[in-house]
Amino acid sequence: MLSYRHAFHAGNHADILKHYCLISVLEYFKLKDKAYCYIDTHAGTGLYSLNSKEAQKVGEYREGIKRILDEKNLDASLQTFREVVIASLPDTKNYYCGSPWLAQAVAREQDRLRLFELHPTDAELLRSNMRNIKLPNRAQVFCDDGFKGLLSMLPPPSRRAVVLIDPPYEVKQDYQQVVDTLKAAIKKFSNGCYMVWYPCLSSVESQKLPIKLQKLVPDNFVQAELHVKSPQPDGFGMHGSGMFIINPPYTLPQQLAEVLPALTQLLAQDNSAQFVLQSHIA
User: Fold this and answer.
1) Residue 141 CB-density burial (10 A; 0-12 exposed, 13-18 middle, 19+ buried)
2) N- to C-terminal Cα distance for the chain?
3) Dihedral sign for Cα atoms in the order 102, 15, 66, 8
4) Known catalytic residue: 166?
5) Among 47-56, 136-145, 167-176, which is the least confidently predicted range?
6) What are 189-202's pLDDT values in tens digits?
7) Cα–Cα nearest to 99, from 16, 168, 169, 13
8) Annotated catalytic residue: which of 15, 166, 174, 270?
9) Model's pTM, two decimal places?
10) CA distance readout (Å), 116 to 42, 120, 228
């Protein structure tokens, strides 16, 4: 389905959409003093070198975060996002953040991070990176299956949780496992905010995933997709990505309505770039 090791793709258009949504949700959760738990099922290494052979091989960050950092007249809807990213990084020329790195940068002392990464090498790199954060006691790293790990963490002690599920979708079974895991998670903890990243591909599995997710909670979701180019004639590769958010902040649809036009224009790779936004919030 996809050949996906995140070091090759860090800072690409999919990261931008995912991380914009993540920052927006976490900032909303911080409006209350009560702690929240951030659970990342496929955490990666947390921090990525843009000078690595992996990042340089494909250079996807040049059509993603680099455009945002270099833009002189950045749309106001993206200003806060850029500021948070810049503040979180050792430097913007050589690094880009993974989701757990952004989450720890935004989190407060009372908030907790539970990070799952199945790949042993990446899990050890994540542990190493998390030791260097300001408050390392907030984060726990598990070298384990994030789907199972998520269910073991629910409900969290604080009864407030933001969950990010973004598997590599390297095998078709990942799509159904996302749906099955979410169904079980909602049964255990119905009030959690569940964020699912997915690739926009020509495959049937990719196209059906948001439809299946919508059936889980038809009256409380936001779906946002950013298509940066037209699909390849051979059906290979990702032409965009999506975020499906269950139990989203009520403010998120309006935020996305403001940012997606600007993001689409800035990250477009051909003249077919477009976005999708639909929501239903009870």
Assistant:
1) buried
2) 35
3) positive
4) yes
5) 47-56
6) 999 999 999 999 98
7) 16
8) 166
9) 0.95
10) 6, 11, 29
